[in-house]
Amino acid sequence: MPAIAVKGTHDILGKEADGYRYIERVFEAVAQLYGYQEFRIPTLEYTDVFNRSTGEGSDVVRKEMYTFLDKGNRSVTMRPEFTAGVARAIVEHKLYATEDLPLKAYYTEDLPIKCFYYGPVFRYERPQLGRYRQFHQAGVECIGVNSARFDAECICLAMQVLGMLGFKGLHLKINSLGDEASRKAYRDALKAYFAEHIDDMCADCHERLELNPMRILDCKVEHDQEIAKGAPKMKDYLSEESEKRFYQTLSILNDMDIEYEIDDSLVRGLDYYGEVVFEVHAISKTGADYGALLGGGHYDGLLEALGGPQMAGVGFAFGLERIYNVMKDDGLLDDLEEGLDIYVMPVGESVLDESFELVSAIRNMGYTCDSPLAAIKLGSQFKKAAKKKAHYALIVGEEELQRGVAQLKDLEKQEQKEISLENLEEELDSLFGEDEHEHHHHEE
Ligand code: HAM
Q1: Which of 86, 295, 332, 435 has the fewest Cβ atoms surrounding its Cβ within 10 A?
Q2: 197 contacts 190 by C-beta, under 8 angstroms
Q3: pTM for the whole thing?
Q4: For residues 150 and 312, is the Cβ–Cβ distance under 8 A?
Q5: What is the per-residue pLDDT across 261-292, written as a single tens digit (0 to 9) for each?
Q6: Ligand 1 within 6 A of CB of 20
Q7: With a 6 A CB cut-off, is 296 part of the ligand 1 pocket?
Q8: Which residue out of 78, 79, 322, 325 has the highest number of ligand 1 atoms within 8 Å of its CB and is therefore the one to mutate?
Q9: Interior CA angle at 94 toward 93 and 97, to 5°?
């Protein structure tokens, strides 16, 4: 049997990885604009971390986790999301407290804690369009200040990243799940409603009715969706305070010219949410729907569930595969490839050593450079240069080397001129423009 990647996982190679890296860099840059710092947390956590926070009523924890016993018989889980691990890290390092303060006391000047993260996550789901078992998230959490304004800021951040990546025609869906009392009242009302219809509904919904009746609203079974249409609406169960809070967030979005649709059926799949929740959807130009590009919302009890203080937070995570796939379909990744600055072409065995040194010197000047490092036929060297989308070829021959010169060929214009190797750096600087050279050095 040939070796293949594990079902639901996928390789991201070369040009594709360029696309992912580009998305991550834009994300990172915007997160920094908003005052976020990176957190790098382990891929593996004790299973308990997710049971206690992501939630025992959620599909993710109930049936999608990669959980196993390590060699010391401890139950560990490959993270299905970052939020629980971030909360665990904040509690473990008491980032909300200074050393001289007892647990549960904290200095407000340290708050909110604003972090961003990205990396692989794992969920044992049925693989399909836009759905993988190992995929990548990039997200933020803003923890320690309970405010509708920070909720709004978080949404602004998400929309700014997508705007900077070139997305158009996005659907921001938003809803409020209210505070705990609102949610309890709503859950009771849903239970009463669905109990009447449950005999006609799918097996999953039977479970949901017990564990988390709000999830029934998310059921994809058509007949169940019909029944769900007649269910009580969350907005009729919001406490006055939650309602006020929701409209405060919405009014900030209005002020920021961010368009949204209030979606009553948006309940989100993880247990920790309360108050505002949101998702962004997009249909690619090819008509493909890869699912939500991102999801997030506000939470209140997460740190407490992990042994920390009662502290609110808000956050979201992008699904990088989905972002990438829509961008690829929409041609938003077409101009990424910069190509190689210089391809050095040795002519004859006798110039190989000098060519090697030239390549190294050009790289040290900050220009991207490559070479076959072998005296192969010039014709194949030009083919290799074209493959690498090289802008210039530097052709190094023995007789010319003795005169301290080489042929520099503009591969686009097909123009060639002799240049002095002594002045190579000045030549290249004037060719590529000082600004760009600065930029090259910057990236080193
Ligand atoms: P989530 O909605 O479970 O939220 O996942 C966030 C995003 O990850 C989704 O919108 C989607 O783009 C992507 N995603 C989810 N499952 C898959 C999959 N099987 N294959 C490909 N992409 C997928 C969370 O994970 C929360 N931790 C977000 C959050 C942060 N809430 C507050 N803070």
Answers
A1: 435
A2: no
A3: 0.92
A4: no
A5: 999 889 888 989 999 999 999 989 999 999 99
A6: no
A7: yes
A8: 322
A9: 145
